[in-house]
């Protein structure tokens, strides 16, 4: 399976996927930590991929998604964005609605 196929399988296999540095329990950067906190506050059942343990995904995801940094949040197969966008959506209340819709789908 190619790296692109693996990335696609992660995104299509879960309603909410966060490609992050570290794990939700042990985030390895502040941006990943803030994204996880915002998603948990929104009630997300999230699937995560630790890009530090997946160097091929870390190298290829920015080209795949056309987004240069981590973390990267995908909901229902669509790139939402990184930490700043996730936190903004959380603060506006929009993230909770998007998460609820994703869990219904």
TrEMBL record:
Keywords, alphabetical: 2Fe-2S, Iron, Iron-sulfur, Metal-binding, Redox-active center
Binding positions ([2Fe-2S] cluster): 29
UniProt entry tagged with the keyword Metal-binding: yes
Residues that hold glutathione according to the record: 21, 58, 70, 83-84
Family per record: Belongs to the glutaredoxin family. Monothiol subfamily.
InterPro entries: Glutaredoxin, GRX_PICOT-like, Monothiol_GRX, Monothiol_GRX-rel, Thioredoxin-like_sf
A GO term, aspect molecular function: disulfide oxidoreductase activity
Protein name listed in UniProt: Glutaredoxin
Keyword Iron-sulfur applies: yes
Superkingdom, natural source: Bacteria
Domain Glutaredoxin: 16-80
């Amino acid at each position: 399976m190619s790296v692109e196929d693996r990335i696609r399988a992660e995104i299509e296999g879960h309603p909410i996927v966060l490609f992050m540095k570290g794990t939700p329990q042990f985030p390895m950067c502040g941006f990943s930590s803030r994204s996880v906190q915002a998603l948990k506050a929104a009630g997300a059942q999230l699937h995560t991929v630790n890009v530090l343990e997946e160097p091929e995904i870390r190298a290829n995801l920015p080209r795949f998604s056309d987004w240069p940094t981590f973390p990267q949040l995908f909901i229902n197969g669509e790139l939402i964005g990184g930490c700043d966008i996730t936190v903004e959506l959380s603060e506006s209340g929009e993230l909770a609605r998007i998460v609820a819709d994703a869990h219904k789908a």
